[in-house]
Amino acid sequence: MNAAPAFHAGEQALQARVGVQAQMAQIGPRVLRDHMPEQHREFFGLLPFLVVGSVDAQGQPWASVLAGAPGFVTSPDPTHLRIRAHALPHDPLQHTLHEGAPVGLLGIQPHTRRRNRMNGTARLRDDGLLVEVGQSFGNCPKYIQAREPAWVPTADVSTVVHQGPTLDEDSRALIRAADTFFVATAHPEAAHAHEPRHGVDVSHRGGAPGFVKVDGERLTVPDFAGNLFFNTLGNIALNPMAGLLFIDFERGQRLYVAARASLVWDGAELAAFQGAERLLRLDVTQAVRVLGGLPLQWGTAERSAHLAHMGTWPSR
């Protein structure tokens, strides 16, 4: 009996479109593991935060953040990650986590540009959760802005300053200034998946400030050359719902966005952004902006060298 392919149909379709499907079929089984290698297990233990992807009862993906003193994440064995933290106030994770929930995890150390990803199944614990590995893999360090995070316990009161089906002007300003955001996506069968590749994914997107174009409720993001896994875009090819998390690194705001996503493969708008291989278009359906309550402080950003030859959106 042949083993199941490492990539699902949406990922394979995009790999085929750019001419790398056969190559990735060979690479996938070697790099997409059902366990964490020792260096990944040690890496997660160094982090003061994790990015988490989850889905709500309507199947909408959300991107969230969990934070704690380094060591709040441990790995008791190669197939489990123990997270001793609870959802932040007003984070969607308060409503999406349940016993057996599918989750995607991104461990990222911005100042060293290391990141590792995994997806799996959550088991609830009194002090947090235990995640059983579905897929575990390393990730491309390109486009990460090198700013160092530090866990700082905070007594700040969290306040929802905007919530609704549209962005407010302060949220648009936050997005326009962003050099980083996180995006959660999910396979259509994620809530009942029996295949690890049919899970939830959360990933990083980075660029020079202004790389996310804002037109009312539409966000347009250049998609640059990466590892060719197409985890995010492959999910979108099958399920157009996405969840975004923007963090205001100076003021500690969190902006959670739900959107419908689509891909743009050609045309004048794509040609206008040097270095973009395609565009990710996101039409906002819900937004929640929270002030306070994030127990992290961030150092000054050092721009990724890979952005030196990337363009900017034409001024209007």
Structural account:
- There is one protein chain.
- This protein is α+β, with helices and mostly antiparallel strands and about 325 residues long.
- The protein has a single domain, classed as Pnp Oxidase, Chain A, CATH 2.30.110.
- It is about 15% helix and about 40% strand.
- The protein has seven helices and 17 strands.
- The strands form three sheets. Strands 9, 10, 11, 12, 13, 14, 15 and 16 form an eight-stranded antiparallel sheet that branches. It has a seven-stranded antiparallel sheet with strand order 2-1-5-6-7-4-3, covered by helices on one side.
- Strand 12 (about 215) and strand 13 (about 220-225) form a beta hairpin.
- The longest helix has 11 residues, at about 20-30.
- It is globular, with a radius of gyration of 18 Å.
- The protein starts with 8 loop residues before the first helix and ends in an 18-residue tail after the last strand.
- The model has no long low-confidence stretch (mean pLDDT about 95).
Brief digest:
With 316 residues, the protein is α+β, with helices and mostly antiparallel strands.
